[in-house]
Specification:
two-stranded antiparallel sheet; 11 strands
């Protein structure tokens, strides 16, 4: 695994040298843009709209737009000094909390944590401590010049660190338009919906969920590479707007209903 960060975990006076590895990967299929006429890849140039000419990296500075078309230019040296001042290569655990106390809306990205050469014993201690206590550690870390809030927890045999959003990065639910009142639910509809949930309830098995679009796209690419004739599947009909909620719930319930077990017939032996 590629190491994306190297530093240490600290809680109290305990210090654990660790390495950070991305725990997930983007499986999206990247498509290039080509010129339709000659199939040459399209490139993009950085152009100044004011001067109407192409610029190089040396001609570009960073700035903050504090109002429309008004900027504060930030010198590269100033940014570098600020980065160095705040580049503390440690995951500092501030608090220990229960995982269920954090809503999933806060979670951002997951990393595996591995111990560095001298950190195995302290790593194992923290892992066992988190397991025994049933807690996770809330920490701060700086990755690529950005301070992040994070949690450290146990995943199978490893420690993982998950970056989470700061509270002011999560938008207020009060800003979401058109949320209905809770008391608009009809009891009969609720009872039927609960029955539907019960019938669809199972143990979570991540292996059963696949990216059907990515699979179909890769098959299309392989067929075209091989020069095969590509057949386009018929579009699945879009569902009509639900006008009768109860009918839709009942139809869903009937569709997912498990077949009743077959009754075994018993035969009576005739007396000889």
């Amino acid at each position: 695994m590629h190491t994306v960060w190297k530093g240490s975990i600290s809680f109290g006076l305990v210090n654990i040298p660790v390495k950070l590895h991305a725990a997930t990967e983007n499986k999206d299929i990247k498509l290039r843009q080509l010129h339709k006429e000659c199939h040459t890849p399209i490139s993009y140039k950085k152009v100044c709209e004011g001067c109407e000419k192409e610029v190089t990296e040396e001609d570009i500075v960073k700035a903050y737009e504090y109002s429309k078309n008004k900027y504060v230019v930030l010198d590269a040296e100033e940014l570098e000094n600020l980065r160095k001042e705040n580049e503390d290569k440690s995951v500092e655990i501030i608090d220990f909390v229960k995982l269920e106390e954090i809503d999933p809306i806060y979670f951002e990205k997951t990393y595996f944590l591995s111990p560095d050469a001298t950190g195995s014993k302290a790593y194992a201690l923290l892992r066992r401590t988190l397991e025994e206590s049933g807690k996770i550690g809330v920490a701060k870390i700086i990755i690529r010049s950005k301070e992040q809030l994070a949690v450290v927890r146990v995943y199978k045999d490893a420690l993982v660190m998950e970056t989470i959003h700061f509270p002011d990065e999560v938008r207020s639910v009060g800003d979401v338009p058109n949320i209905p009142d809770m008391d608009t639910v009809v009891q009969k509809e609720l009872d039927t919906a609960l029955m539907l949930v019960e019938q669809l309830t199972t143990e979570f098995d991540p292996s059963k969920y696949t990216d059907e679009y990515r699979t179909a796209l890769m098959q299309l690419i392989e067929d075209k590479k091989a020069g095969s004739t590509v057949s386009v599947n018929e579009k699945r009909p879009l569902p009509d707007n639900v006008t009768d909620l109860m009918s839709a719930l009942q139809a869903s319930l009937d569709k997912t209903k498990k077949p009743a077990p077959r009754k075994r017939t018993t035969r009576t032996k005739k007396n000889a």
